[in-house]
Amino acid sequence: AKSAKGTTDRAKAYMRRFMHYSDDHCALLMDLFRHKIVHLAQPPAVIAFKGTKTSWHYWHDDSAHHLKLVRVDPPAVSPVTSVLTITFDQEFQISIRHMVADVIDSVHAPGGYLHSLSSDADLQDRFGKAIGDIYNA
Fold first, then answer.
1. Contact criterion met (CB below 8 Å) for 69 and 90
2. Which pLDDT tens digit goes with each residue over 2-41?
């Protein structure tokens, strides 16, 4: 809690352990949405991911499109500004409702964070240190 150092790695570890997301899902979510939303108010139209140009698309409530990485053939074009476009080769698809459910389940489901916190001594120790950092800052 004291330092932002390692925040990305800790967030990815949480997503892998409690949300059961793959390494690729974690990397894509962090690359597309982490600082971009906070600092720029919108994610980039396209990112480089494993040697391909990757765009994103969201659905409000469609599990068929949740955490899917889809090849686009032929490559598609995304507008960046009114006069600038960028071509992409694949699209990362997300269902917002299902991502919200994943976050809630990661906390409350059996094997989720709260369950693990009640029985995992290492997690309890790190939780205690983080709470101490927050309230002694």
1. yes
2. 666 788 888 999 999 999 999 999 999 988 887 655 566 6
